[in-house]
Amino acid sequence: MGKITKSRRPVVAKTGVKPGGLNEPPPVFASNSRFPPHAEIILNSIAEGVFTVDLDWRVTFFNRAAEEITGIPAVNALGRPCCEVFRANVCESACVLRQTLDKGKPVVNQTIAILTADGREIPISVSTALLKDEAGAIIGGVETFRDLTLVEELRREIHRQYRLGDIISKSPRMQELFGILPEITRSNSTVMIQGDSGTGKELVARALHSLSGRASKPFVAVNCGALPDALLESELFGHVAGAFTDARRDRLGRFALAEGGTLFLDEIGDISPALRCGCSGSWKSGPTCRWDLTGSSRPMCAS
After folding, report:
1. Cβ contact 165:159 at 8 Å
2. Which domains does the chain have, with CATH numbers?
3. What is the pLDDT of residue 23?
4. What is the C-alpha to C-alpha distance for residues 124 and 151, in angstroms, rounded to an integer?
5. What is the pLDDT of residues 213-250, one digit of tens each?
6. How far apart are CA 27 and CA 13, in angstroms?
7. pLDDT tens digits, residue range 82-118?
8. Neighbour-count burial of 95, counting CB atoms closer than 10 A to its CB (0-12 exposed, 13-18 middle, 19+ buried)
9. pLDDT per position as a tens digit, 119-161
């Protein structure tokens, strides 16, 4: 095998034009790092921001993407503490790069926020690793980061278009429902939600609650199909001590606990006609419900 020689001279095509075109001289990058020139050229060609720090937390390398994301020229970042350059929301309390240098473990894709040169706060995803020399000694840390601004804008757009409360859907029928629900919340009328088990009736009820003027008050859900009539009546209306066996003290029912808020009676179709009449009778006068505690003639009311 012939002897291979290494050369630091740039590769020149036979035409005399250097790679990159137009006979321009190789670019010069600001850096205090120990990277060889070709490594810096590669790092300045990638889309992710890359910077390195020494053991005193001063920036030793700042690539072109880092300049574009932060709006800070590399010559202004080099030699400065990284916290002054990035002004991230975790710099003082939970610096990601410090975690790596302290524990020796890399951090991958952690989302933080930084301030750009013009004072805008932008979300970025960062990954960190130890920076070592040829002998394996730790000489600092390296962090890569990418701008998540577009991702967050898309997320917010999806949230606006396809989400209502905890319901997310692109279905045209559900989009129609999303348009109707805010109109319903303007009324204090009782709302009946129909649907098979597991289709999300409670999610719709919670969405109505969160969109209404009652959002700051309790949302109380009762699965009517899970309790026999005798227990359900006590659960809904409450009872006084001695109303039945083991009723040792007065207890408020779900109607009273939902005062000022929303009461969701799930699977109400499963209860007996007699109890259903009792429930409907309590709210027949409108949004104000009236009923008697079990075992007592004392009237109760709630809105």
Report:
1. no
2. 37-147 (3.30.450.20), 166-302 (3.40.50.300)
3. 40
4. 10
5. 888 888 888 887 787 777 777 777 765 555 555 656 66
6. 18
7. 988 988 888 888 888 989 988 889 999 999 999 999 9
8. buried
9. 889 999 999 999 988 888 999 999 999 999 998 888 877 777 7
> pLDDT of 30-78, one tens digit each?
556 667 778 888 888 888 999 999 999 999 999 999 999 999 999 999 9
Show Cβ contacts of residue 45 under 8 Å, excluding neighbours closer than 6 positions: 64
As a whole number of Å, the end-to-end CA separation of the chain is 93
Cα gap 141→33, rounded to integer Å: 11
- Please name which of 99, 103, 104 lies closest in space to residue 131, comparing C-alpha atoms: 104
Alpha-carbon distance 37 to 42, whole Å?
A: 9
User: What does pTM read for this prediction?
Assistant: 0.47
